[in-house]
Amino acid sequence: MRIVRSVAAMQRLARSWQRAGVRVGLVPTMGYLHAGHISLVHRARALVGRRGQVVVSIYVNPTQFGPKEDLSRYPRDLARDARLCREAGVDVIFAPDDQQMYPRGEEGGFSTFVAEETLSRGMEGKSRPTHFRGVTTVGAKLFNIVQPELAVFGAKDFQQAAIVKRMVRDLNFPLKIVVAPIQREADGLAMSSRNKYLIGDLRAQALVLSRTLAKARAAVRKASQPLSAARLKAELKRFIERAPAARVDYVEFFEPDTLVPVPNVTRGAQMALAVFIGKTRLIDNAHL
Ligand code: AMP
Asked: In tens digits, what is the pLDDT along the chain, a chain of 288 residues?
């Protein structure tokens, strides 16, 4: 396994693979890897085959963090990530630094951004106004640097996957976006690098996210008629905030392809929520 640090070296490698007709799959991450990330690596391997190349990018992308968010304290451990990647059969880790990705220099700094303007408006985009512009910008850069034929994203970040798919379609990036299922801990908590912040009893309180999804699913499956989204949201918010450290950011029901909110909830709707557990903001989602 190679660790590549510079954009130029990664692009040289990508070009040599292209010339040799080697299939390439990319798994973009911010590192501090867990079994959720590794499931994406396995999916990429299954798709490109044994002779293909699986690249994991590890980059805590500053442009997708808001000014009051956890950029500086976001967990990082490249040595551990490299070990996990090696065990999972990754071929290349692309781990650039900020100067590689957003150079500052004599010719003037970085000044080009890619923004998706419809799917980005609600939910995460509303709570984190510059987040998706950072995601699409770094995504576009990674696709140009690694030139994969496919990139694997997790359903954990449902809105992100939809937006990246839309960007790829709208800007004709020559690759396929594959979305892989959410990996959970045994008790239901969706795996996340941010779970590291959940100390003491916050870890147990964080279960309220997956329990709320289960509660909504049970309600929808039991109901003989569509449920009012407004009423269900209010009830679920009350349920969530029974956990003393929990504060709801949003609970949303929407159509999974367009992300348009639905006024009435039936089976087949998508549900997503963001909840602060103490200072840690967690997200989760499910198909109802
Ligand atoms: P991150 O490092 O949090 O930016 O995540 C990198 C990729 O891993 C994204 O496509 C995420 O959706 C995906 N991912 C994160 N957590 C999980 C999980 N629990 N299950 C599946 N995919 C995940």
From this structure: 999 999 999 999 999 999 999 999 999 999 999 999 999 999 999 999 999 999 999 999 999 999 999 899 999 999 999 999 999 999 999 999 999 999 987 777 899 999 999 999 999 999 999 999 999 999 999 999 999 999 999 999 999 999 999 999 999 999 999 999 999 999 999 999 999 999 999 999 999 999 999 999 999 999 999 999 999 999 999 999 999 999 999 999 999 999 999 999 999 999 999 999 999 999 999 999
Residue 124 lies in a domain: yes
pTM flag (> 0.85): yes
The Å distance, Cα 154 to ligand 1 centre, comes to 5
- The separation between the first and the last C-alpha atoms of the chain, rounded to the nearest angstrom, is 40
Q: Whose CA is nearest to atom 17 of ligand 1?
A: 36
* CATH code, domain carrying 131: 3.40.50.620
CA angle centred on 105, ends 103 and 109, rounded to 5°: 60
Give a yes or no: residue 185 inside a domain: no
Query: Does the beta carbon of 157 sit less than 6 angstroms from any atom of ligand 1?
Result: yes
Put the strands of the sheet holding 92-94 in their side by side order. 2-4, 92-94, 53-58, 24-29, 150-154, 176-180
188 occurs within a structural domain? no
Task: List the catalytic residues.
Answer: 37
